[in-house]
Write a structure and sequence with these properties.
- The chain has six helices and eight strands.
- By secondary structure, the protein is of the alpha/beta class.
- The strands form two sheets. A six-stranded parallel beta sheet has the order 1-8-7-2-5-6, sandwiched between helices. A two-stranded antiparallel sheet has the order 3-4.
- Helix 4 crosses helix 5.
- About 40% of the residues are buried.
Length: about 200
Amino acid sequence: MSAISRYRILLLIGAGLAGVELVVTIASTWVYVQAHGRTSEASEAPSASVALVLGAKVIDGEPDSYVRGRLDTALALYRDGRVQQVLNSGNGRAVAGNEPAVMRAYLQQNGVPPSDIIDDPEGYDTAASCRRAHDLFGVRSALVVTQGFHLGRAVALCRDAGIEAHGVLAECDCPTWTIARNHLRETVLARPRALLTVMMS
């Protein structure tokens, strides 16, 4: 391979990396602007009509650490009177373990009446959860509950869907490596995809 060919390859790689960096920066800036001043701990959250709890993996009919942290936060909001209902949004297909059903069972076991729990079994991703909460369930204000790496994007997408959204930070007793992995995936993949979804909607 000639020196000129190697230079061209390096130039293309450099241009590609610069393009990726630009997209990531734009997406992260969009999330920051949309969510700035709209996130808090549960103890400092404002009141809203519902807590929108975003689903995640369930194992053998039990919520994993991420989902349990979100549900425990929603329980705190409900018990404090900051919300009157909890909307569980996740993948209701059997192959995924029916996330909303598992979430409902956990809330009921911890004292939330069935009448105050709403299930959305077609919240397959964050954008769908927000859009369906607004369009199908009539949610106009919500406390969106998820972990920190996900919170800004969730608020941004729910605001774009027409919901007056405030993000509430859920804790997670999770391995450090999974949190680091999720932060990386969020920054490099999920935020750019979310921005593209908004631009195309």
